[in-house]
User: What shape does this take?
Amino acid sequence: MTTTTSASDDWPDWLRLVTTPGVSTRQLRQLLSALGGPAQVLAASEAERAHWVGAAAAAALSRPPADAPLRLARTEHWLAHPPAGCVHQIWTLGDPTYPQAFLQLSDPPLMLYLQGQAAPLDRTALAVVGSRNPTPQGRDNAQAFAHDLAASGMCVVSGLALGIDAAAHEGALRGGTALPLATVAVVGTGLDRVYPKGNQALAEAVALHGCLISEYPLGTPPLPAHFPQRNRLIAALGQGCLVVEAALSSGSLITAHQALELGREVFAIPGSIHSPQSRGCHALIRQGAKLVESAQDVWEELRTPCLWGRDAAHTATAEDVDGGGSGGGSGVGHTPTPATASTDAVLQALGWEPCGLDQIQARCGWDTAALQAHLLQLELDGQVSRLSGARFQRLRAG
Assistant: This one.
């Protein structure tokens, strides 16, 4: 039977503090530093509190929020009813179980909610982030890197978003079956919600083989401002941050820059010069991020051993990945490449950038019917992906 625990016995007082309107986290930290724990802050007079945070915030803490009883009951019920095989926990600032990495932040969360496995979040980890609308190659790269990193003993941290985040969690779950925490998802909602809803099954799998964490109270909806805010937690948990694909305006670049500010290593996978999803990675590389082509590149930079004795020669590179996409059932990292792929005239003509049928035909000289038939076979073999606009993208090295 699963044991449900809360690391903090005084979580109701913490909940009252963090859900009081009109009081910032910075002001609460000031009060906690000056007056002691949350019970002392709530028991202090308005005048005592006003000395540190001003009259408005001091008065707000004297008035229980109208929804305080509902929030309390909802949280008590959540703590007592975790899914099978999981725990629900609340961590507060100063608890022994509170992740030490978050203490490096200028604004560490005062409360954290956890659903999943209760293993400490102090193991070697890598943040993997990227576009919500990746190319097929980008999605496969995220899966392949995460698979091999988790298979080597590294926890993969991401944000449960569509695209690269989801692919990274999926790859880590397949590669990290021997780990207490294969992957950690840091979310921008309360843990009683899953966003996007299409990732419900993925969230459940993450909870069974890793954990989900949030700084937002239960019932919190997916507000736009929460996602850039949660990115700092993703950056903090990793010893490094790998950006797989990102546009120049991507939130993934925010995470990368936050990682740099925390002294973390930043890695980027290069891509086509014609792909908007590659421009953010290329910008990071120009700014000093390490260009990586394989999981081994990450291990070497972080000086992280392959904890499970996996031979680095068998790890997937950015080109040597399975072409099944995030929803495929085949194992990432295993590449059943046909023996003729290295000399295939169509693959050679296609190169490594999205290419139209006419352009491929001009390069290889095949007639239209034969070329279309061969492209279909390459697509079925998982070596080529069909893109919008009658274009094709090579997925792995021959």
Summary: Residues 28 and 257 are 27 Å apart (CA to CA). Confidence is low (pLDDT under 50) at residues 1-5, 306-341. The longest helix spans residues 136-151. The radius of gyration is 24 Å.
